[in-house]
Design goal:
Length: 192
């Protein structure tokens, strides 16, 4: 599974129609409507704002007035085929006066997404866990060494030290002798 590193925008002209593809890295479903509203503000006179998105195990496509299944589904299909998650892909279309037909629309929206993805960098996601680990102060040096390449998202100091950390599966085995609590399965971006 992969994520895009940065948001990206690309434009193609196909039979006088302008197809502007915007790829956006997303973290929650709640932010999607804001991104789409911003795109509509940026391109106010476009004919269609078609999109597909995948976040975790949830996916959705929208044809925004194009014939059913000719825009949103092709966008979503490319994202699934490329195994990309946490992405919103919007294709803004300015109609150029030449009707493309159902097959032509499917090819145009698919090509728009493929071209944009060719020009963006991807990061591979690996399976991991979000854990809570509690340890004594005299173990801090060892724990910090084991977790040196992991993302510690919270630290609390009291009688003991508690970290909330995102760890790769292979690191969990190194923590067996310490008191940790599993919170949830996650995917972690693999840093180069």
């Amino acid at each position: 599974m992969y994520v895009i590193n940065n948001n990206y925008e690309n434009e193609l002209i196909i039979k006088n129609s302008r197809f502007i593809t915007i790829l956006i890295k997303i973290k929650t479903k709640e932010e999607i409507n804001n991104y789409i509203d911003n795109i509509k503000d940026k391109y106010p006179k476009a004919t269609h704002y078609c999109y597909g998105y995948i976040i975790d195990n949830y996916k959705k496509a929208n044809d925004d007035g194009e014939p059913s299944g000719t825009a949103g589904i092709p966008i979503l299909n490319i994202l699934e085929k490329e195994n990309i998650t946490n992405i919103l892909a919007v294709v803004v279309r300015y109609f150029g006066g030449i009707k493309l037909g159902a097959g032509g629309l499917i090819r145009a929206y698919s090509k728009s997404i493929r071209e944009a993805l060719k020009n963006t960098n991807l990061t591979r996601l690996i399976k991991g866990k979000k854990i809570k680990i509690t340890f004594s102060y005299n173990n801090q040096k060892n724990i910090d060494y084991i977790l040196k390449d992991e993302e510690i998202i919270d630290k609390k100091y009291s009688d003991n030290i508690t970290y909330i950390v995102l760890v790769k599966d292979e690191i969990v085995a190194k923590l067996k002798e310490y008191n940790y609590e599993f919170i949830e399965e996650i995917y972690i971006e693999k840093k180069s």
